[in-house]
Amino acid sequence: MERQQAAILIASIILVVIIIFLIALFTIFQKRKNSLLLQQREAEKKFETAIAETQIEIREETLRNISWELHDNIGQLLTLAKIQVNIAQDDPDKLGEVTETISKSLTELRSLSKLINPDIIKSLTLTEAITLEIERFNRMQFIAATITSNEEMEDLDDKAEIIIFRILQEFFTNTIKHSKASTLDVTVHYDTDKLIIKAQDDGVGFDHTDRTMHSGIGLSNMQNRGKLINAEVQLLSEKGKGTAITLIYPYKKENSIVLEDKID
């Protein structure tokens, strides 16, 4: 009888311990789950904030470009047209030159109007948006720029396009402002499982092992942007031989957009 009572007591204690253990395990699981959900929401919030900041930066850069083009290109054409009109008043044969200059001004305005759309990436494919930048460089005679691309094999996520465009825009800006380059060549290649974009200038270049230079041209910023969409960003440069950037974006569905690092 005593043995039965002892066995029942021991079994009861073991059952209570098991129940307590299960309750503790369930509590820990719930806390972990809630913590992961909270981290996921925070990551999503940070990602959306990063996208919004990137869109603002693109719009600011676009407005600066529009300002430069209005002043340096279209403004000069209209000034020339005004001079030609004054000359044509005394020499009607010069009216043809006036018409030609005004027609060129209208063409430039039409090209410029494409940039005015604040959601340029949403209304164009990534390749078309990059091509607009290349055309602007040539139109403004900033640099002799070219772009080659194969046919797009897969539609990219809108947010990924925004990030990729901004990374390239930063590289282009560095090329125009600091590289002293005369040529810029861009290749956009859509592979079966990834997008590969390469841009190369023939500027003065720099020692790519110099971390201070990386900071000065914003390489870490470009790489952190790339991490937002699981894209790899590589920058290579050599003094006297120019600078090149390679961006590799795997667009398979399993490679979902994540936020690993906050943009600097």
TrEMBL record:
The keyword tRNA-binding does not apply. It comes from the Bacteria. It holds the Pfam family HisKA_3. PROSITE patterns: HIS_KIN. It is an enzyme of class 2 (transferase). The keyword Transmembrane helix applies. It catalyses: ATP + protein L-histidine = ADP + protein N-phospho-L-histidine. The chain crosses the membrane at residues 6-29. Its EC number is 2.7.13.3. SMART domains: HATPase_c (SM00387). One of its GO terms (molecular function) is protein dimerization activity. Residues 65-253 form the Histidine kinase domain. GO terms for cellular component: membrane. Keywords: ATP-binding, Kinase, Membrane, Nucleotide-binding, Phosphoprotein, Transferase, Transmembrane, Transmembrane helix, Two-component regulatory system. This is histidine kinase. It comes from Aquimarina muelleri.
